[in-house]
Amino acid sequence: MDRPARPLRRPPALNALGKRALESAERRLSPRGLARLRDILWAFRIYLYVTPGEGLVRQALAIFPEPVRTLGARCPFHRYSARSGGGYWPDRNEVWLAAGVETYEGLRQVVLSSRHEMFHFVAHNDPRYRADDDASWPALWGALAASRLHVDDFPRYRDWIRRSFIPQGGHANPAELFADIPTNFPDAAEIPPPLRDYFAPLLIGGDGGPDAVARTEPGDLASFHALIAGA
Ligand SMILES: [Zn+2]
After folding, report:
1. Which residues make up the environment of ion ligand 1, defined by Cβ < 5 Å?
2. Which of 46, 94, 126, 222 is 20 to 30 A from 20, alpha carbon to alpha carbon?
């Protein structure tokens, strides 16, 4: 997908009204009712509520340590007119997220989608993780290799890797796993200890990080999937 060209601007009063409508719809409607409402709204290309970028960055990173929040606050985060989609563009060092995520995927999902994109930004802007990214993630591979022995002790992590992450195929690469771990496992107690050491500065704060784990020579996507499946 090409980087969107134009940010969507919303009058704050319309946004405030739409937010109340969306919260009420999510609270009161059945899943089927909500799907029907979304069909009607999309016929008119309506976005009920579009969280301003800075607010979304704050929500997405609120549960993480202060250095992560401070780093994230530097990220230009734009909304644009589309039902779904978005991404982090390293050449511009900015995030764009579709304006429809709140209305068509939900108020909870928009925070998770933003969190995922923000950790692409963190990987690119925290020198420790940037060095690992630039080297094709040898420390992440190492942390995952050392985690193999432990995966059965972390069944939510194990099942998520096997049932949700790997089935994405070509998209299930180390850079995406890096962004998905803080998004899906912000509680470091839920991931194997070597992976916890690797992510510690981002999840817990303080020491750890890529320099705290043994490195492994990165391989191709198939060997990456075999490695994380713990097979
Ligand atoms: Zn991603």
Report:
1. 176, 179
2. 94
